Amino acid sequence: MTDVLVCVKRVPDPTGEVVLTPDGLRVDGRFAGYTTSAHEEAAVALAVQVAEPSGGTVTVLSVGSEESIEQIRSGIAVGATDGILVETDADLLGPADVAAAIAEAVQTRAAAGTQYDLVLLGNDAADTGDFQVGIRLSYLLDRPVVAGVQTVEVEDGRATLRGEGPEGTEVYEVDLPAVATVLEGGVAPRYPSVMGRMRAKKASVETIGWSGTAAGSGREALTVPEPPPSEVTVLGEGPSAAPALVAVLRELKVVHG
Fold first, then answer.
1. CA-CA distance, 107 to 250, in Å (whole number)?
2. Full-model pTM
3. Which tens digit of pLDDT belongs to each residue from 218-240?
């Protein structure tokens, strides 16, 4: 039986316009809405794929405000078993703080008799792109870690993890328990059924605290790049513009002759 913990983060919807908070330190999601990143959706799908055949469990964990329960229940709706909310002000935390909060939750569950064989995270935070939490977590838990994986197979206490590297597919084998960060693309995302949504509403989500003191991110500011300049060429006005328009269409191979 393989028990998996998946860590997700409540992030602003990346399909909307990127707006920063007044202090310039965070992405403001009040206008775009909130979601889970595509990497973390893939991590949830992989976790369910790994745990189901062995009768294992999948727990979804989020570090953040009470609103993060929405993202936890989204994971439960597509096959996870239960959830954990480490309730704290996520805006005050840096990657080291988040890793410490997750590690404490893992160790608390282990002391209570639940040992997670595999901890999966998104490869990077969708809003700040830190690329740090999974690596820091592996050090705190003293477990092997593989970053940027897209598929996971577990057999006889070992995990085989694959991802795409500069030279092609990279394959790693590690002993469990282990940590891995997931990139989208290796597994199809799971979509909730009506029954899944109903089950998620009733599923257990344990709310716990974190005993640490936030060190913060050390971030000075985020910036939103200026959109690329656009160029407009006026072909003319009225019937006199027709020859120029035909020339452009021929150049684009929309018309011939």
1. 67
2. 0.84
3. 877 888 788 778 778 888 888 88
- pLDDT (average), residues 192-209: 94
Per residue in 37-51, pLDDT (tens digit) is 999 999 999 999 999
Whether 160 contacts 172, CB under 8 Å: yes
DSSP, collapsed to helix, strand or coil, labels residue 220 as coil
Decide if 186 contacts 151 (C-beta within 8 A). Answer: yes
Residue 213 tokens, joined: 């003191």
Looking at beta carbons, which pairs linking 187-194 to residues 24 or more positions away fall under 8 Å?
A: 187/42, 187/45, 187/46, 187/49, 187/150, 187/151, 188/45, 189/38, 189/41, 189/42, 189/45, 190/41, 190/44, 190/45, 190/48, 190/78, 190/79, 191/78, 192/74, 192/77, 192/78, 193/77
Q: In the chain, what is the straight-line distance between the N-terminal and C-terminal CA atoms, in Å?
A: 69
Work out whether the CA dihedral 38, 44, 46, 48 comes out positive or negative: negative
- How far apart, in whole angstroms, are the C-alpha atoms of residue 187 and residue 118? 17
**What span, in angstroms and rounded, lies between the C-alpha atoms of 93 and 96?**
8
Query: What size, in residues, is the chain?
Result: 257
Please enumerate in sequence order all residues whose Cβ is within 8 A of that of 214, keeping only pairs 6 or more positions apart, or say none.
88, 92, 93, 94, 97
Per-residue pLDDT of 102-161, as tens digits, reads 999 999 999 999 999 999 999 998 888 888 999 999 999 999 999 999 999 999 999 999
Scored b (16 or more CB within 10 A) or e, 181-196 reads bbbbebbeebebeeeb
Residue 34 near residue 11, CB atoms below 8 Å: yes
**Residue 206: what are its φ and ψ, rounded to 5°?**
-85, 130
Structure tokens at 25: 């330190």
